[in-house]
Amino acid sequence: MKKLILIIDKWNANKTFIEEELKCIKEKYEVTIVCDFDNEAKYPKDTKYIPYRRHKGISAIIKLIKCLFDRITWKELSHLRNKKKKLCKISEIIRFYINAELFWDFFEKEVLPVNEEVIVYSYWYFWKVFAITKNRDKHPNIRIISRAHGYDLFEEQSPSGYQPYKRAMDDKLDRLVFVAQFGKEYYLDKYSFTDSDKYCLCHLGAKDYGILNPYKKETNMRIVSCSRIVPLKRVDMITDALSMIDDIEIEWIHFGGGEMYDAVAKFAKDKLALKSNVRYTFMGNVSKDII
Fold first, then answer.
1. Whole-number Å distance between alpha carbons of 20 and 24
2. What is the pLDDT of residues 41-81, one digit of tens each?
3. Which residues have CB under 8 Å from 47's CB, separation 6+?
4. How far is 284 from 226, CA to CA, in rounded Å?
């Protein structure tokens, strides 16, 4: 069976996204999961996991010196020519490079099989991908695939307003998988890449159980939404939409919590107070395992 190395962040944080996909992957590949160390992680027993602990101290200083003398860094800095707040972006580039170098030391020594063909699949298009693409020429037997979501794709979602080394990573990738068409279009436009088979779209989602509940006008309409309640998700816009509907009985249930939970709940209470045809419930954070 072919080998596949799946790179994620912490298992507890990523398992909701990856569990269904992982079942399909394991049917065709011998899977090793590489994830950030987490004392509270509860891994499934039938999969191999290798936890990664970030190094600090002298190792980071050595990588900083390497960064400053690496041509790839100076090429990356050249892309900041017309950018604002350059100091913040330079800092982001350096941190990105150091994190990648530290991860590579671990990955090459503890994870990567010697002289074997293997697929490396990163769930996030970030510095762990850069670590591997940067060193790909040393290991011609590997193929590299990455997904691209939000924080690892859009400059607007980066604290510095910049996504480092995207051009350098893209050059060495075999496949880049986007979770939304908008993200793919953004990426191709931002970096002036020509669309090709290298870039593909694969939406996130759950297994299709073949169950369909068609809406009948004589019954209530039930709407279920699921996301973190944070500015990016714009859950309050569901409230706005429901406030405009008068001729249908609607029940809205939202799963998920977040920093704007109280504010959005209050907004719904105020906005829908006079809507006798609309009922709603905010369930908060609910474990996927008990739904």
1. 7
2. 888 788 899 999 887 778 889 999 999 999 999 999 999 98
3. 22, 26, 31, 33
4. 10
